[in-house]
Amino acid sequence: MIKVGFNVLAWSAGLPDTLLPITEKLKNIGYDGVEFALDHQGLDVYKRFNKHLSDLGLQSTCVIVMGPDENPASDSAAVRAKALDSLRNYIDRAHALGAQVMCGPFHSAFATFSRKAPEEQEYQRSAEVLRAAGEYAAQAKLMLAPEALNRFECYLCNTMEQLVKLINRVDHSNVRAMFDTHHANMEEKKFKTAIETVAPVLAHVHISENDRGTPGDGHIQFDEVFATLAEVNYSGWLTIEAFTRSDPDFANSINVWREYSKPWEMAENGLKFIKQMSQKYKL
Q: Which residues form the Xylose isomerase-like TIM barrel domain (predicted)?
């Protein structure tokens, strides 16, 4: 059964209390769940948010990124060990939050480049770290869903073909893949081919417009996206990931320099759009 979520990065990174009334409104307008960016607050904060969401009848997913000093693909054993420690800590927080999926480009360090094409040993090193993380995630009944990013934010996995190669090398049932329409718009030849490629290991989908504004307002070929998701019998989350400058520190960190759409415009119109498209293609 398709579930629709909204990533609250449109308002804030982390789990500040200011998100509590926002999650209530997201529930009231019809969302099934909320996606949070994990930070390093204590587990008690995550447990409190879990109770709040449960009381509302909302489910949750979460997203993380890795820094250069915790890069799973690093040639340094010490850095890879730190990467695994960080992933386990994030898994603990995701579990405390009650999240079903932890997604993001955590196969490698965000916006960190080797200035050369990805090498086989980098995929192998990343796979080994992700396999160990998958073992830990299995105990928390959490699905890990690494994400392919565009070439300006990542070099290890830009396409579904590269991501599937990595996931197959990981070979763990708790490590699958996610698909993001924003990144695919830049890196894939055809949405249909990309989705068909990742379908056997697809666990999570971000519905993101080309400019990171309201889904349906830009030039993403969403008819092709929804039609193909229906063809491959996708039944997971459709989560809107749209960005604003509401949290300047976060916005600056990902090069968001202007407003694309207002947060509630994104949430309300995006939900209507997803429901219309899902009904159209019987998703």
A: 24-258
H or E element at residue 60: strand 59-63
Average pLDDT over residues 258-264: 91
Cα dist from 140 to 55, 84, 163, whole Å: 21, 15, 24
Q: Cα separations (Å) of 43 from 47, 90, 270, 275?
A: 6, 10, 31, 34
**DSSP code of residue 91:** H
Its CATH architecture, for the domain 3-280, is: Alpha-Beta Barrel (3.20)
Calculate the CA 181 to chain-centre distance. Answer: 11
* Verdict on whether the full-model pTM lies above 0.85: yes
Look at residue 186 and tell me whether its pLDDT is greater than 90: yes
Say if residue 1's pLDDT is above 80: no
The residue count for the chain? 283
